[in-house]
Amino acid sequence: MTKIEQVQQWIGENNADLAIISDPETIDYLTGFYSDPIERVLMLIIFKHQDPFIFAPALEVEAIKDTGWTNPVYGYLDHENPWNMIHDRIQEREVDVKEIAIEKGNLNVARFEEYRRILPASNFSLDLTPMIQKMKLIKSDDEIEKLKIAGQWADFAFEKGFEAVKVGRSEQEVVAELQYALMQKGIMQMSFETLVQAGAHAAEPHGATSTNKIENNELVLFDLGTVWDGYISDASRTIAVGTPTDKQMDIYKVCLEAQLAAQDYAKPGITAEELDKVARDIIEKAGYGEYFIHRLGHGMGMSEHEFPSIMEGNQMILQPGMCFSIEPGIYIPGVAGVRIEDCVHITENGNEPFTHTSKELQYFG
Ligand code: MN
Ligand code: MN
């Protein structure tokens, strides 16, 4: 069964008539076509018993056909009203449109008001988002192959990034070097903004790469990922410049122990929360529990915002094909931030990481 057929089956089971897909990532997942239309309208309409259609900006129509999409695709020009045209295309099908499933996780109020305006007699209570999230949970061999290649490019980026680390260089310069090296190899897209944070700056886990200069005797945190054919990588390493303090070395040692223990433990049949606890217990026992301020990991695939979430309270049982990060971190304000992250996929009897850069503390600069 194709992915679209699975959605059609779900539409039937839930007594809906059609689904409006608006998240570009979902459209990519279901059709193989990706474009971020920004403020323009890109939609995939899936009917219970009829062929789906894509509604897109006219300038995207040829690219959609080039992906091998054989169902109808309708384009609109910038001066045309896309909503009225979508209405007409749905009316043409002469189907009942009482119950419409929408992606509640990807819809703003202005667009929802347009849905209600063009289809005033329809109900929009059914949410497709959880179903799509569930579909994405188990990756196929083909998807895992793409994640592996994205991982290989992340390893390459670490190698180039570490080489670029020098005392006196800014975090931003290091990012520029590693991304330039990737671009020379044809890897044009990162999966998120590359993070290089030196010294105490790394204690802000959601901070950004800055103009701060790398100093001697500190730790430098890297968090990066590339995109390969729609699939991402996401990995973190922390390296040393000069001689870190005993405290910094201790934080690193504990974080590494937690990461390795969790990665060793990840296998089918355990729950997500058990895995989080394996790493958290080690960090807590070492006295750093209050500085591990996020979940152990997140699902990933086409983005780093998928399931399963590796955290307390999630009793989801891990199964082969699930892909997620294992990324303990210890962030002590004013001292240092350490995070070590690999994404893995669950195999029949364990797991396999997508990235292989050494996790022993490495010295550069
Ligand atoms: Mn990361
Ligand atoms: Mn991550």
Written overview of the protein:
This protein has helices at 3-13, 24-31, 61-66, 82-92, 109-118, 129-137, 141-164, 171-184, 246-265, 272-285, and strands spanning 18-21, 43-47, 53-57, 73-76, 99-102, 123-127, 195-198, 218-224, 227-228, 231-232, 235-241, 297-299, 306-310, 323-326, 329-332, 336-339, 342-346, 351-353, 363-364. Helix 7 (141-164) crosses helix 8 (171-184) and helix 9 packs antiparallel against helix 10 (272-285). It is of the alpha+beta class. The strands form six sheets. Strands 4-3-2-1-5-6 form a six-stranded mixed beta sheet. It has a four-stranded mixed beta sheet with strand order 7-8-11-19, covered by helices on one side. It has a three-stranded antiparallel beta sheet with strand order 14-17-18. The N and C termini lie far apart (53 Å). It contains ten helices and 19 strands. The chain has two domains: 3-136, Creatinase/prolidase N-terminal domain (Creatine Amidinohydrolase, Chain A, domain 1, 3-Layer(aba) Sandwich); 138-364, Creatinase/methionine aminopeptidase superfamily (Creatine Amidinohydrolase, Alpha-Beta Complex), CATH 3.90.230.10. The radius of gyration is 23 Å and the shape is elongated. The structure holds manganese (II) ion (2 copies). One manganese (II) ion binds next to loops.
